[in-house]
Amino acid sequence: xxxGCCNSSCSSTGGSNDPRWRRALWIALAVNFGMxxxxxxxxxxxxxxxxxxxxxxxxxxxxNYAISLAVAGLALTWRSRAALLKGATLIVLGLWVLGSSIxxxxxxxxxxxxxxxxxxxxxxxxxxxxxxxxxxxxTGDANMRSVWICxxxxxxxxxxxxxxxxxxxxxxxxxxxLIVASVLAGLGLSGGAQIMxxxxxxLRSERAPQPAE
Length: 213
Hints:
213 residues; Alpha-lytic protease prodomain-like; zinc transport; membrane; transmembrane helix; Cation_efflux_TMD_sf
């Protein structure tokens, strides 16, 4: 690991039990839970799959931050298991969004571009703030990195939602919304797989016999 740590439970930021880390997570948890409520209502009102997909992502992140707070300070094995759970959650959400997008492509109408744009910009500001808050913790253990990966993906996803709103406004069709929803699903699947790989690597490292001194 970076910073010369003897194992991944330590880092230049003091590890996952660092009070600064816990304080940042509490702020991120509050922001994500608030944005989940905002986007799920706006997405349903605007009939936007991209907004609803992003709302579910906010909800998943809020749950993941809560899990990270619960395991902060525990042994690396438990933190890695928590990261595995978070990775699996991202994959499940990604698959759900893909299925929802396919259904909407067959039966959906064009969403309200104005609502998509306003809420998309609000979500972008929220996620950018959270990503900047968590940036310093991006090189910690798998549990800490998983939080950074989620925040980074969210900020990228919100830019795509704003672009989808412009596309819906310009074309008058639902396709930009559905395409962005699919991109968000792909980010979730990719991020989930990356988190699970890192966590599995840490678990294997912990289980490996240590050389005798």
